[in-house]
Amino acid sequence: MKVVKAFQAAEAEFSVPECRDSIKDENGHWHSTCVFGKISGGTAVNTVPVFAECEMGVRFVEPASLEDVFSRVKTLAEKEGCRAELLAGGEMRITEEDNEILAAYRDIVKKETGTFPRLQRTHGADDGRFFSQYGIPVIMSRPSSGGQHSDNEWVDLSSLNDFYNICREFVRFFGTKEK
């Protein structure tokens, strides 16, 4: 129960209650979240477990930092008599709107689809953090799709073809650009 209470404290600290069940909120899906990913412990149904652990995922937005978030999780865990360990983490990733690579990509999207893409802030985790920590700009883009990470995940096949053309032209553009 100590583990459950520690998780509940972290969830209360990092989740936005009114947004837990919705895809978007009034701020464009820009808030911290905490999810209970895994719990394990005990050896038999009829025995009080001597040991239990849980793994949780905390996604955070500014002004928080990884160090700040982990420190807060650790403090909450210790209040419940638990120990916290950071298994994986990364800082937030932001690509500035005036980035020249982003501008080129957006121009290519406009040329290929007839629509100038809008920029959007979203929270979550992605492998872009491994590049942005070295100052490499990251563009997250996808074909028209929805229901990611669910049984109802889908992709629009015609937009998949557009996405292929966009990626091809983007690689061509930067492949021919003077060094």
Describe, in plain words, how this protein is organized in 3D.
With 179 residues, the protein is an alpha+beta fold. It folds into 2 domains: 2-79, Alpha-Beta Plaits (2-Layer Sandwich); 100-176, DNA polymerase, domain 1 (Orthogonal Bundle), CATH 1.10.150. Helix content is 36%, strand content 12%. It is built from 5 helices and 4 strands. Strands 1-2 form a two-stranded antiparallel ribbon. A two-stranded antiparallel ribbon has the order 3-4. The longest helix has 20 residues, at 157-176. The radius of gyration is 21 Å and the shape is elongated. It starts with a helix and ends with a helix. The model is unreliable at 19-25 (pLDDT under 50).
List key phrases describing it.
alpha+beta; two-stranded antiparallel ribbon; 5 helices; two-stranded antiparallel sheet; 4 strands; 179 residues; Alpha-Beta Plaits; DNA polymerase, domain 1
